[in-house]
Design brief:
Tetracycline Repressor, domain 2; mainly alpha
Length: 192
C-alpha cells in the first residue's frame, strides 16, 4: 500500500479511536466509522474488513509507540528514574481520564476472544511486561533503582493500571487519590 493508502488508514484509525472512546467496541459499526472518516463503505472496506481489524490496529499502534519510546530513551542513556516518572505520569493521567479512555472498548473487544496462547490481549500483556521489565532492569543496572523482583513489580504496575482503568469505566471512582497513591507506592518500591 502506498503513502496515500497509509494516510487513509491513519485517518480511519484516528476517526475510529474517537468512536471507540465514546461508545466502547461493541456499539461501533463500520457505518459509524465510514461517517466519522468521511469515506464510502467501499473506501473503508478497501482498508479494513471489520471493526475488529480497525481496533486491533489502533491497539497495536498505541502499544508499539509506547514500547519504542521507552526503548529509545534507554538507548539514549537517559536516567531510569526520568523514564519511569514519565511512564508513571502517563499511566496516572490515563487512570484519571475517565472520558478519554479506551478501557471499555478494550475489554469488550478482548472479552470476545478465546482464551489461548494466541490471545491478542495476552500478547499485549507480554509486550507491556517485557517493556517494563527491561526498564526496571535498566534502572537496577544503572544503580538508580533498588533491587526488586522485576517480574512481580511489572505485574503489579500492569494489573493495577488496567484494574483502575476497567473499574473506572463501569463505576464512578471519585477519589483521584487512588491512582496517585498506587503510582507513588510503585515508584517508592523502585527508586532509590
Amino acid at each position: 500500500m502506498g503513502k496515500k493508502g497509509d494516510k487513509t488508514k491513519a485517518a480511519i484509525r484516528k476517526a475510529a479511536l474517537v468512536l471507540f472512546v465514546q461508545k466502547g467496541f461493541k456499539d461501533v459499526t463500520m457505518k459509524d466509522i465510514c461517517e466519522a472518516a468521511g469515506l464510502s463503505r467501499g473506501g473503508l472496506y478497501t482498508h479494513y474488513g471489520s471493526t475488529g481489524q480497525v481496533f486491533a490496529d489502533i491497539i497495536n499502534e498505541l502499544m508499539s509507540g509506547l514500547k519504542s519510546q521507552v526503548a529509545e530513551k534507554m538507548e539514549r542513556d537517559l536516567p531510569a528514574a526520568l523514564i519511569l516518572d514519565e511512564l508513571l505520569e502517563r499511566y496516572q493521567s490515563e487512570m484519571l481520564d475517565r472520558s478519554g479512555s479506551l478501557g471499555l472498548a478494550f475489554y469488550e473487544y478482548y472479552s470476545g476472544m478465546p482464551l489461548s496462547e494466541d490471545n491478542a490481549m495476552l500478547k499485549q500483556y507480554y509486550i507491556s511486561k517485557t517493556m517494563l521489565c527491561s526498564l526496571i532492569k535498566y534502572g537496577i543496572d544503572k544503580g538508580e533503582f533498588k533491587q526488586a523482583n522485576v517480574n512481580a513489580v511489572a505485574d503489579l504496575l500492569l494489573f493495577s493500571y488496567q484494574g483502575v482503568r476497567m473499574l473506572s469505566s463501569i463505576m464512578p471512582l471519585d477519589d483521584d487519590n487512588i491512582p496517585k497513591g498506587m503510582i507513588s507506592e510503585i515508584r517508592a518500591m523502585l527508586v532509590k
